[in-house]
Structure formats: structure tokens, C-alpha cells
Amino acid sequence: MTDREIDQKLVERAQAGDKRAFGMLVAKYQRKLARLVGRLVRDPAEAEDVTQDAFIKAYRALGAFRGDSAFYTWLYRIGVNTAKNYLVAQGRRVPTQTAVDNEDAENFDDGGLLRDVNTPEAELMSRQIVETVNASMDALPEELRTAIRLREIEGLSYEEIATLMNCPIGTVRSRIFRAREAIAERLRPQLDVSKDRRW
Amino acid sequence: MNREHLSALMDGELDPSLETTVWARMKDEGELARIWNEYHLIGDVLREKGIGNIRLGERVAQALSTEPTVLAPRRFGVAGQPTRWLAVAAAVAAVAVSTWTLQRPEASPSQMVARNEVPAESPAPSPPAEAEHYVAMHRQWSPLSGFQTVDYAAGTVASR
User: Fold this and answer.
1) Residues of chain B positioned with their CB less than 8 A from the CB of A115
2) Of A82, A184, A191, B11, which sits with the fewest C-beta atoms within 10 Å of its C-beta?
3) Rounded mean pLDDT of chain A?
4) Highest mean pLDDT among A156-160, A195-199, B93-97
5) Mean pLDDT throughout B50-73?
6) Cβ of B49 and A14 within 8 Å?
7) What percent of chain A has pLDDT over 70?
């Protein structure tokens, strides 16, 4: 199942009334969409509001999503339009021909800018989370660290990782999972999320 | 559900035979949605993306909780399996009907009668008797005088 098929599955579930499925799409794309919106709406608090608004609009329009394009491509357009409409409503200048317009939605990637537009509280929490993840990575056994790095950073498939690490695919699957769990275990107190709070 | 399955699903590496079970469990277990969120967060951090406000997802969730639930007619998107199979079935049916029609042996007249079918080319209906009488009485005014013509009444040949 490809990434696009996973998204489509979640969309179909959401279209059938499963709000949690849409929540999983939000969880997956919230940071990416927030980075995109932050490029247009520079104020951190406003960018968050616009990002939230874009997700709500996407949810309301979900019935019209037919799967002709990837979900994120569709969400990307909603994000850009919501941000531009917000700027117009505020009487502010809307970039006419921005890099955002020309960007391929699938490949849109701008990791640095969101840090610049964060609120101080979010910035602090964000920094703590990054530190925890990095510290957890350093504490991982070498084989787990390599496996998750090859997957998350290099984007390799399990088969490719298995070849590189000279081990069966099942071992790769297990190592990546154990690495994620070990990091998540150390993150959970910071995220402070009770089991009932989400979706 | 095994969390390892969720991890593999995220990576598009889950054994297809487990997919149905995993999706069904995900619908019912909020815990899995939380883990899904954590794993995606870890991925974003490792890729050195700005992670922004960690509470944004919760804000969106709260806003969505007041939204009426979307209930869209079922569509078939990327997979498109049912639609595709319907189209294939329709095409096969069309070919089968065409082939059967073309290959069917001609029915004999007796069979047609027996089945009460109408032949493709039936004779034109005869004009009413009053019309035939009228034409016969006024034939001398016809501009075709001098030509041999066939009378409208069957079997009659008239010379002009």
C-alpha cells in the first residue's frame, strides 16, 4: 500500500463518517500544512488559525474529494487559498506569484521557516521535543538507530534497508518499530496526552 | 492491534493480508490514532522539519468536534476496484451480446411465423381502394402518357 493509498483509505473512512480517520490525516499533515501557511501568513498565531481553518474547510469539502489527485495536493490548494483569502480579508498584500504557487505540492518542503514563525511557548516546547528525540536517538542501539535513520531520513524501503543492513525484512520492520517505540516512550510525558483526549 | 503493524502500515510496508484487520482495529481504537500521531511527529523531527505548535492537532480536533459529521456517498478512488470491474463486466457483456447476435443462424420464415416475429422487410401497406380508383380514373391526365407504366393495382400493366 503506497502512501497515497493510505491517505485515500483514511479519506474514504472519513467520508463514511469516521472523524478519527480525518484526525489521522491532520496528525500526518499538520506540520507540513502549517509550514506552507506560515510562508504566506507570517504572524505565528494567525498562521495557526489559518491552518486550523484550512483543515476545517477540507473536512467540510471532503465529500467532494474524489481521489483524482493525492490528498495532500488537494489539501495544499485549500491551505494556499485559505491563507490568501485571509490576507485579502485583512486588507493585506497577497503575494501574486509566490514560490508557494509554483511549488509542487507533493514536494513542498520548508523545514526552517516554521521555527521562525512560532509563538514563544510553541518554540520552547518544540525545542524540548527536538532535544528529546535527538537524545533518544543517541541512546538507541546502533542497529535500531541505523534502521530508523535509513527509513525516516533517507526514505529507503524495508527491502533496501534489509539489503544494506544484511538482515531479513522482518528484522528491519522490528527494528524500526522498536526505535519508534523507544523514542515515543520518552516523548510521551512531554506530549502529556491522555488516552481519551484525541479524536 | 500490534503496534508493529501500525508502524509498518505507516511506511507502506504492511503485509497486505493484515491490512483489513489493521484498518478495522484503527477505527475502534483511539490509542492507535495517538500512536500514529507520535510516530509521525518523530519522523518530522528526524527529518529536521520545524514541528511548530505541538498542540495544533489538538486545536483542530477540538474545532472538528463541533462540525457535523461528513457522510459522503461512497466513492472508489485510487483503488477504484468496483468501478473498474463493473466497466470490464459491461464491456465483456457487450462483446458477448454482439457476437451472439452476429453468429445466430437466420431464422426460417416458418420459424418467424411460429415465433410471431416480423420480417425485416415487410411489403408496404396497400393504398386504400378509393385512392386506387381515383388514380385509375385520372390516369389520362398523367404527364407520363406514352410510357408503359405499372398500375397501382397489382398485376395490371397499362399502355399510354
Assistant:
1) 50
2) A191
3) 86
4) A156-160
5) 83
6) no
7) 84
> Cβ contact (<8 Å) for B3 and A13?
no
Give this prediction's pTM.
Answer: 0.69
Residue B14 predicted with pLDDT over 70: yes
Helix (H, G, I), strand (E, B) or coil at B80: coil
Q: Is B124 helix (H, G, I), strand (E, B) or coil?
A: coil
Chain A contact set for B61 (CB, 8 A): 23, 26, 198-199
Structure-block grid coordinates of residue B15: 503485509
In whole angstroms, give the CA distance from residue B44 to residue A66: 28
B56 touches chain A (CB under 8 A): yes
| A62: closest chain B residue by CA | B70
Chain A nearest C-alpha distance from B103 (Å): 41
Chain B positions touching A22 (Cβ under 8 A) are 64, 70
ipTM of the complex: 0.85
Rounded Cα distance between A39 and A113, Å, is 7
Give me A187's grid cell.
Answer: 516523548
pLDDT top residue among A106 and B73: B73
E strands in B35-100? none
Q: Of B33, B48, B70, which is closest to A62 when you measure between CB atoms?
A: B70
Strands (E), chain B: 148-150, 157-159
- Res A91 pLDDT > 90: no
Nearest to B78 among A8, A35, A118 (CB): A8
